[in-house]
Amino acid sequence: MAATLLIVDDSLLMRQRLRALFSRLDAVEVIGEAENAETALRLCHELRPDIVTLDVSMPDRSGLEVLRDLRSRDPGPRAAILTNFPYSSFRMQSKELGADCFICKSDPPARITAAVEDLALQLETGEGAQ
After folding, report:
1. Of 8-22, 23-37, 75-89, which gets the smallest average pLDDT?
2. Domain encompassing residue 117
3. Is residue 129, in this structure, part of any structural domain at all?
4. Which residues of 11-38 are buried (b: 16+ CB within 10 A; e: fewer)?
5. Structure confidence by residue, pLDDT tens digits, 92-127
6. By three-state DSSP, how is residue 8 classified?
7. Given Cys at both, which of 66, 75, 94, 107 links 111, Cβ 3.0 to 4.6 Å?
8. Total count of domains within the chain
9. Which tens digits make up the pLDDT trace of 60-75?
10. Residue 80 belongs to a domain
11. Is 107 helix (H, G, I), strand (E, B) or coil?
12. The whole model's pTM is what?
């Protein structure tokens, strides 16, 4: 069974790109998209995705703040931080908040899909359970 995935990014173009990329994978099923933190938190509660991709920089609240909220409620979904800003400070903060991986949006598509497939495999095998 495929892992369910929620894409969170304020850019419609990026959400479309990620959906197209992840829709090619057998290991995941994209079940929703959110353009801001409020919608992301609501959809995480309603849809209970296995994996969520979070943009660091959004107009209302950052993906890191969304991750903090998700982790404060329960372990929640696996989280992949996707950003155009691969600064070490964001990487460290992501790790401290419990992100499962940190990916630069400019990475090759194969790197992005491999990271998400790895999260799906971890869910399937119970590896690194939260």
Report:
1. 75-89
2. 3-124
3. no
4. eeebbebbeebbeebebbbbbbbbbbbe
5. 999 999 999 999 999 999 999 999 999 999 998 887
6. strand
7. 107
8. 1
9. 899 999 999 998 876 7
10. yes
11. coil
12. 0.93
